[in-house]
Amino acid sequence: MSTRIKFAVTAVAASIAAWSLPALADINVGISLSTTGPAAALGIPEKNTVPLLPDTISGEKVNYIVLDDGTDASQAGRNARKLTTDDNVDIMLGSSSTPPSAAMAEVANESKTPLITVAPVELPEDKNHWVFRAPQHYDIMADGLITHMKANGVKSLGFIGYTDAYGESWLKAMKKATEAAGIKLDAIERFNRTDTSVTGQAVKLVAAKPDAILVVASGTPSVLPQVTLQDRGFKGQIYQTHGTATKEFMRVGGKAVDGTIMPVGPVVVADQLPDSHPSKKIALEYIKRYEDKYGKGSLSAFGAQFYDAFLLFQAAVPQALEKAKPGTPEFRAALRDGIEGSKEVVATHGVYNMSPQDHFGMDERARVLLRVENGDWKLIDADKPTPALKK
Fold first, then answer.
1. Neighbour tally for 17: CB within 10 Å
2. Residues 273/368, Cβ–Cβ less than 8 Å
3. Domains of the chain by range and CATH?
4. Are 326 and 114 a contacting pair, CB within 8 Å?
5. CA nearest neighbour of 107 among 117, 119, 97
6. How far apart are CA 361 and CA 136, in angstroms?
7. By the 8 A CB rule, do 176 and 201 touch?
8. CA distances (Å), 199 to each of 62, 222, 231, 233, 272, in order?
9. Is the dihedral of CA 216, 222, 224, 226 positive or negative?
10. Longest Cα–Cα distance in the chain
11. Strand partners, 61
12. Cα dihedral 14, 17, 23, 24 sign
């Protein structure tokens, strides 16, 4: 056989072998965030975090497909369907607030695609299998507030929160926590994310004369109830939730929000944490990378939460690759199992230990308490009296 014929046969054999081997696929990550709409103050820093993510994990190329849901649950559902059907993503991350995240969860369960939300959405058990959360559970954050209230003599608490799942989940957590602590909670008002006035609700709350009031909202809409309560004469302590921990809240609220107390993830005050805190090192590293790219003081807790969602996903990839190739149902199932089996995954907001019974996976290490002082965050002790802030 001539050399030319031998080469031709070898080439054909190689071609046939190549066709018979399974093609290596990239890992595709589908992301839907609220970069416009009422939750844009959350979604923008989350989107800004995407360029900080690696192009490869465990030697495999990773593609990030980013969509905007406009803080609209219907759009978030459409985005999720596009990502799972047209883009065949291996995992989804998002969305920025609770209603869009719930819509994505529906698609995640239908398509059997793992989802890590960046909002603490609560779901019934039969809708929980494919869905994990990067943020802390409401109960962990509520317990931090109750600890501070008890240390500061709060006997009665007013409540004004969103009418949606975020507000109702917080109300459920606070009812349980206040009852256990012997704190009266019966002045309860609600408002919509898009409302431009809460005067009626504020008048009723002020008339009830609670020692303190908890505002349950997120981003800049959190300012409206707080300012209105003060305009109507409320002089007591105002608490907010971790959904409010943005620089925009302080910028828009100005002096009116000085003295606000809220539970947050440790990344928000990473430089004030003791060296022994497990999240301090990784939080400071994230802050440096983010602020090197976007400017000093640009850090957002929500960008860091999105980064934590990525860290959970990244930690599960090596195990999943041992079982299946990206782009397959088997790989998606292996990713899901890997995330559920996460143990001591250190992140900027705390440490994850997932289980079949707990798809939040965080403990008290994921919570600190801070107070807004002169347009900045100040770490405070939850179990000690907090001196009045001079305004």
1. 9
2. yes
3. 27-136+285-360 (3.40.50.2300), 138-264+368-380 (3.40.50.2300)
4. no
5. 117
6. 8
7. no
8. 49, 14, 9, 12, 37
9. positive
10. 101
11. 56
12. negative
Q: Which of 41, 263, 254 is nearest to 146 (CA)?
A: 263
Is residue 348 within 8 A of residue 288, CB to CB? The reply is: no
Give the strands of the sheet with 376-380, arranged side by side: 184-191, 156-162, 212-216, 237-239, 261-264, 368-373, 376-380
Outline where 98-220 has alpha helix (H). 98-111, 138-151, 165-181, 199-208
Q: How far is CA 145 from CA 21, 222, 349, 370, in A?
A: 57, 17, 17, 10
Q: Going residue by residue through the chain (391 aa), what tens digit of pLDDT does each one get?
A: 444 433 334 344 444 433 433 345 899 999 999 999 989 989 999 999 999 999 999 999 999 999 999 999 999 999 999 999 999 999 999 999 999 999 999 999 999 999 999 999 999 999 999 999 999 999 999 999 999 999 999 999 999 999 998 999 999 999 999 999 999 999 999 999 999 999 999 999 999 999 999 999 988 899 999 999 999 999 999 999 998 988 889 999 999 999 999 999 999 999 999 999 999 999 999 999 999 999 999 999 999 999 999 999 999 999 999 999 999 999 999 999 999 999 999 999 999 999 999 999 999 999 999 999 999 999 999 999 998 876 5
Q: What is the 3-class SS of 229-242, one letter each residue?
A: HHHCCCCCEEECCH
CA–CA separation, 11 vs 287, rounded Å? 53
Which amino acid appears at position 32 of this protein? S
* 88, amino acid identity: N
What spatial distance separates the first Cα and last Cα of the chain, rounded to whole Å? 95
Q: What's the pTM?
A: 0.85
DSSP conformation class of 211: S
CA distance 78 to 94: 13
